[in-house]
């Protein structure tokens, strides 16, 4: 067996320590604090603890988190996330989301990378942070960043020409080696899924890379809703799974707190999807791609 991992996203752990100093100087942060306080009613951090516990009980090799680990990209939030990942009891892979680049200042000091770099170890091209590649027996996780600081009320993302060119080369090489390529990206990658001002600005260019090189699985978060689809590849389609927020208390269809267990093996990629029913995570049926 190549790789058995749990995927979750958008855990949005909140710690407002130290925010008072900054918020009066920073409009973006002041608006964000109000949003984050509102989110406290709809998200519960203990669900992330429950995901970690289940991941260990399910014998997962690894936990994969596709961004928005914080709300405001504050030091205190990253500190909390780093501690939770460090104490998880299994290896963690993370990529950033737009909330992890909430302010220009946090991007300038590379706060996400400096706190969570230990969970993004892998092969890189000529010193670039992204994509990073974590290789396993017959499978690879390819971590992308769409995280850019945006104007208030915007939650857009961008990969950029350089990162897309590096992704193209990586997918080509791994594809040639017959490795199962699992692409991690925060923003949705299918048309019409992201709300206005919430989208990936260079989505078309990303889709062209996948159409040219292919991928076995693309995992994302961001919209806090369950999504299933596929992108065109050169031979087979690339399966796309978007997952709802791991810490969501919503009871609306598709918006329940969720995680998925993946088993990557030569015969295919099997998935069991788990949703929060108010008391615990309940397993759905297994699907195989
Ligand atoms: Fe989010
Ligand atoms: Fe997001």
Record the SSE blueprint:
Elements: E1 3-8, H1 19-23, H2 27-39, H3 46-57, E2 62-66, H4 75-86, E3 92-95, H5 104-108, H6 111-116, E4 132-136, E5 139-143, H7 161-176, E6 180-184, H8 203-213, E7 217-220, E8 227-231, E9 238-242, E10 258-265, E11 268-276, E12 281-288
Parallel strand pairs: 1-2, 2-3, 5-6, 6-7, 7-9
Antiparallel strand pairs: 1-10, 4-5, 8-9, 10-11, 11-12
Helix pairs in contact: 7-8
One fe (ii) ion binds next to loops.
Describe the 3D structure.
The chain has 289 residues and is an alpha/beta fold. The protein has a single domain (3-288), classed as Purple Acid Phosphatase, chain A, domain 2 (4-Layer Sandwich), CATH 3.60.21.10. The protein is 28% helix and 24% strand. The chain is built from 8 helices and 12 strands. It has helices spanning 19-23, 27-39, 46-57, 75-86, 104-108, 111-116, 161-176, 203-213; strands at 3-8, 62-66, 92-95, 132-136, 139-143, 180-184, 217-220, 227-231, 238-242, 258-265, 268-276, 281-288. The strands form 2 sheets. A 6-stranded mixed sheet has the order 3-2-1-10-11-12. The chain has a 6-stranded mixed sheet with strand order 4-5-6-7-9-8. Strand 4 (132-136) and strand 5 form a beta hairpin. Helix 7 (161-176) packs parallel to helix 8. The chain starts with a strand and ends with a strand.
């Amino acid at each position: 067996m190549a790789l058995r991992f749990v995927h979750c996203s958008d855990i949005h752990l909140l710690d407002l320590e130290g925010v008072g100093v900054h918020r009066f100087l920073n409009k973006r942060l002041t608006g964000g604090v109000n949003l984050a306080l509102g989110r406290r009613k709809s998200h519960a951090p203990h669900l992330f603890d429950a995901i970690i516990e289940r991941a260990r009980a399910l014998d997962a090799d690894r936990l994969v988190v596709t961004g928005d680990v914080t709300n405001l990209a504050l030091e205190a939030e990253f500190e909390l996330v780093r501690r939770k990942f460090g104490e998880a009891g299994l290896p963690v892979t993370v990529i950033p989301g737009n909330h992890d680049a909430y302010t220009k200042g946090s991007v300038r000091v590379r706060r996400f990378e400096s706190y969570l770099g230990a969970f993004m170890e892998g092969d890189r091209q000529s010193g670039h942070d992204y994509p990073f590649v974590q290789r396993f027996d017959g499978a690879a996780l390819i971590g992308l960043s769409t995280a850019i600081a945006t104007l208030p009320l915007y939650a857009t993302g961008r990969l950029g020409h350089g990162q897309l060119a590096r992704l193209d080369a990586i997918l080509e090489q791994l594809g040639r080696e017959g490795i199962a390529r699992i692409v991690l990206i925060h923003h949705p990658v299918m048309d019409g899924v992201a709300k206005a001002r919430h989208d990936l600005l260079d989505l078309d260019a990303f889709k062209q890379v996948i159409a040219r090189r292919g991928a076995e699985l693309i995992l994302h978060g961001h919209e806090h809703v369950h999504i299933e689809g596929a992108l065109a590849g050169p031979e087979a389609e690339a399966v796309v799974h978007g997952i709802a927020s791991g810490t969501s208390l919503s009871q609306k269809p598709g918006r329940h707190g969720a995680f998925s267990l993946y088993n990557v093996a030569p015969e295919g990629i099997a998935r069991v999807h788990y949703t929060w029913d108010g008391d615990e995570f309940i397993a759905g049926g297994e699907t195989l791609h």
